[in-house]
Specification:
Layout: H1 13-18, H2 30-86, H3 90-102, E1 107-109, E2 112-114, H4 116-143
Antiparallel strand pairs: 1-2
Length: 144
């Protein structure tokens, strides 16, 4: 009885365990690597969704505050010029001029100058971050 070995010969389990010559493929542990990769993907998905929630909350607030501040300034100046012409009393003119200068056109907070246009641009930037985070979140969800 002549038995032929298959062409793609693989040593049996006993031969592999007893042989000093056979060395298993040395690489990093694939299950551990896959587990760490999945943990990073879950963390990235969490960060993307957190950014979406945070920016969707703050962007409208910044846009409304900036637009409101930008619209109030011309209306106050318009009202001060019209109310000042209605009265001939110099004290009224002084009071209206003083009230129109109370609204700032620029604030400095911790050394950072804030203007109405700057607040609007921050709101638009936050909307861009929300869109990018939504795209990343969708892309990560498709990878799972």
């Amino acid at each position: 009885m002549d038995t032929q070995q298959p062409t793609n010969f693989s040593p049996s389990r006993e031969e592999r365990l007893l042989s000093d010559i056979y060395l298993p493929h040395r690489s990093t542990n694939p299950p551990t690597k896959k587990c760490c990769f999945n943990i990073w993907r879950v963390f990235a998905h969490f960060i993307a969704n957190f950014l979406i929630q945070l920016t969707e909350l703050l962007a409208p607030i910044f846009l409304i505050l900036g637009a409101g501040w930008a619209l109030i300034l011309p209306f106050v100046k318009l009202a001060s010029t019209n109310l000042g012409s209605l009265s001939d009393d110099p004290q009224t003119h002084d009071l209206i001029a003083h009230l129109s200068t109370l609204l700032p056109t620029r604030l400095v907070i911790a050394g950072f100058g804030v203007t109405p246009l700057g607040i609007i641009l921050i709101g638009i930037f936050l909307m861009m971050i929300a869109a990018a985070s939504a795209t990343a979140s969708t892309w990560l969800a498709k990878k799972f």
